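Suppose you are handed only two things: the residues of a chain and a line of SMILES describing adenosine-5'-triphosphate. What would the bound structure be? This form records exactly that question and the answer produced for it, so the two can be stored side by side and reused later without any lookup.

QUESTION INPUTS
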Amino acid sequence: MIVDDERFMRTTLREALHSWNYKTIEADSVAAAKREFNREEPPIVLLDIDLPDGSGLDVLSEIKENRPSTIVIMVTGNVDVPNTISALRGGAYDFIGKPVKLEELRITLQNADEIHSLRREVQQVRNERVREFSFLEIIGESEPLKKVIELSRRVAMSDVPSVLLYGETGTGKDLFARAMHYESGRVNSPYVAINCAALPATLIESELFGYEKGAFTDAKQRKEGLFEQAQGGTIFLDEIGELDLPLQAKLLRVLEEGEFRRVGGLKDLPLNVRIIAASNKDLKRTSEEGGFRLDLYFRLSVIQVDIPPLRERGDDVLLLAQHFIDRANLKRRGTKLTGLSSEVAGIFKRYGWAGNVRELRNVIERASILEDGDQVTTAHLPIDMVGGQRRSVGGESGIALPPNGVSLEDVEVELAKQAMTRTNGNLTQAAKLLDISRDQLRYKLKKAGEYETSDAEARS
Ligand SMILES: Nc1ncnc2c1ncn2[C@@H]1O[C@H](COP(=O)(O)OP(=O)(O)OP(=O)(O)O)[C@@H](O)[C@H]1O
Ligand SMILES: [Mg+2]
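ANSWER OUTPUT
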């Protein structure tokens, strides 16, 4: 788009541009320029500053507001310093003085073209990432999950400096951390993730904070740490409970002062990074036992997001199973799984899912490899899920001690009830599943008020 009030100028530019295979539109005033811009959305604008009804700088600011990727080249006979500064601040790409040297214009346009397509590409990739990592990708419609997504969204939008994500292994902490970044105002700045358990304590400090040249024997050059790389954005500190105590003190200082120091450095450097810390351990208890700084725990837990375990998300387990089935079908051509058999759906809803969504994903992936029909059946499930074999408690069994403990008696009753449900109330079979005698089971059920002699007795 050529914006100039002098007809001769517009003609000269138009003819040159057409000879270089550009298409053009024209405007001769601020009002016309705004109107044409909004109608045609030209990628490049040649913009005069002195226009009869105002300043081209106004057009510039409107363009930049509506379509920031537009390239605006100021073409003006009046290149004074204040104008230049305002135009550059306002996002102008370049200046061309009048009278226009056509060769100079041609080269400027060529560069602008390239920049414009790069900008568009970057924007596209960004949009894709935002979509890929947003809360929309987190599957589930149960109340507990909807609540935690709603809370996370609000936290993401607000600019709280730190968030503590708590959840058992496989509940989606990575997913939530990324979604919080991509749905925050920090979306165009870096997201940096580090697993505090993955590196030895000696390396973590220089990884996180960087070091100065000469800080230690191998420090031949200054190195930026992850905190610096995340400047303006978000850092995800996974398994924060594994950080050793001296580093916890340094992290606390970052949170409290908004400053950090490179290893071997003498100055404090300002830092603007949101910290999302994650843990699958009960940090409060760890603090009370001396393994985690209580002050850091309090600081981090000002905003704590608890991601519920899969077994507390009701029918989400079925939605997620379908999601992973669809994904497996996409990945493996020829697979034609459509869903779960009703028996499997029942088992999924009762199962403990100690490994949460990750465990479910693995179970479905396994089933999609073993598949021989269109449904996931018990034949595709790991044997201990189906209950064909006695299993020991712990590990992969699906039984895990909740972080805040549990009443052992309640667990007994719950398992006794499950055994009864699974065997359709057959006391003998249920007792077998629990590896106790019929009388013991009857006694336990009675004590819990779960046993009516007449009809259960009749069935067994
Ligand atoms: N609600 C969900 N919707 C879709 N996929 C999910 C959901 N929750 C988790 N997943 C998937 O399950 C897997 C495990 O999730 P993730 O790695 O985020 O768990 P985590 O809490 O970080 O576990 P850990 O404590 O072991 O690091 C990932 O593949 C993730 O994409
Ligand atoms: Mg994780």
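WHAT STANDS OUT: Confidence is low (pLDDT under 50) at residues 388-392, 454-460. DSSP finds 20 helices and 18 strands in the chain.
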